[in-house]
């Protein structure tokens, strides 16, 4: 018999994943986290909970995550 089939660990370590899925997950999680932070700041009276504030923070989080993790 030839060498044994790869286990799950070797398969995961060798896989790069689909970059579109990684970007989609990054966008969704950044938007969710951005909404959560802006909601909390709204509850504290620091800023208003609106789409512009959420989108701005989500884009900042997305950009930082992209630069730090994917590049």
How would you describe this structure in keywords?
75% helix, mainly alpha, 71 residues, elongated, 3 helices, 0% strand
Class by alpha and beta content: mainly alpha
How many strand elements? 0
- Average pLDDT rating: 88
Sequence stretches where pLDDT stays below 50 over 5 or more residues:
none
Q: How many structural units, i.e. domains?
A: 1
The CA-CA distance between the termini, in Å, is 41 Å
% residues in beta strands: under 5%
Helix content: over 70%
Total helix count?
3
Task: Describe the model.
The protein has 71 residues and is mainly alpha-helical. The chain has one domain (17-70). Helices cover 75% and strands 0% of the residues. It contains three helices and no strands. α2 crosses α3 (51-70). It is elongated and about 65 Å long. The mean pLDDT is 88.
Summed up:
By secondary structure, this protein is mainly α. Helices cover 75% and strands 0% of the residues.
